[in-house]
Structures are given as C-alpha cells and as structure tokens.
Amino acid sequence: MPGLRSDAGHPVGLSGFHGGCFVTPVSDFHRRPPKQNGTSGSLPARVRPFFTPRTLAQYLSVSERTVREMVRTGQLASYRVAGSRRIAAEDVDAYLAAHRSEEHV
After folding, report:
1. In 3-state terms, what secondary structure has residue 79?
2. Angle at which helices 53-60 and 89-98 pack, to 10 degrees?
3. pLDDT reported for residue 101
4. CB 59 within 8 A of CB 100
5. Is 48 part of any domain?
6. Would you say residue 75 lies in a domain?
7. Which of 32, 64, 89, 101 has minimal CB crowding within 10 Å?
C-alpha cells in the first residue's frame, strides 16, 4: 500500500504504531470473522487513531506534562479506557483548529 497516509499525514500500510498513532489499515477489518451474536460485524469505513498523552506530546512537540495539563483543565477532551487516558484524533484536530494563529513570526 505505498503512498497511503493517515489523516494526520503519517504513512500507513502496516498495523501497529506509526508516527505517534496506533493505526489499523481498513483492509484488516475485512479479514476478521463476523461477530457471533448475529450481527454482521461490519465496522465504519474509516477508523481514526487515538493518542496517549505521551504520543500526543511527541506529535505536538510539547512535554507530556503540558498535554496532561491541557486535559486536566478541559482544554482538550480525553477518554479513560480500561484505566488509561486516550485522546481522539478528532479532538486534537478541533483543538488545533481553534488555536490556529494567522500571524507571521
């Protein structure tokens, strides 16, 4: 799958950790067996990655402490998943769009 990129612009082609995001190619979903509870097991056509505070800090080139402070103060939405903090790529996009600066440095 040369040339494929995630929404964040990172190369995608293999499952796993890429550019600070956990990525599963859409093609992998077609190989999974259907659910046993009678549903079709179909998933959305696109699945966006989640960041951990550490991977988001690397992605934004800030400290992990800064990311945790942004979450603590409510500047950035996050989720608790099995006791671990996760931040949706959509929430990062919204935060960045709201804090975009047009001034030239």
Report:
1. strand
2. 40
3. 86
4. no
5. yes
6. yes
7. 101
Q: Domain range for residue 67?
A: 16-98
C-alpha span between 24 and 47 (Å, rounded): 8
- Cβ neighbours of residue 12 closer than 8 Å, sequence gap 6 or more: 1, 4, 5, 6, 18, 23, 25
Confidence band, pLDDT 50/70/90 cuts, at residue 102:
confident
Residues 6 or more apart whose CB falls under 8 angstroms from that of 20 comprise 8, 10, 51, 55, 56, 58, 59
- ∠70-91-14 over CA atoms, to 5°? 115
Q: Using CA atoms in the order 7, 13, 19, 24, what is the torsion angle rounded to 10 degrees?
A: 70
pLDDT, tens digit, for every residue of 65-82? 999 999 999 999 999 999
Tokens 């190619």 sit at which residue?
25
Q: Is residue 7 part of a domain?
A: no
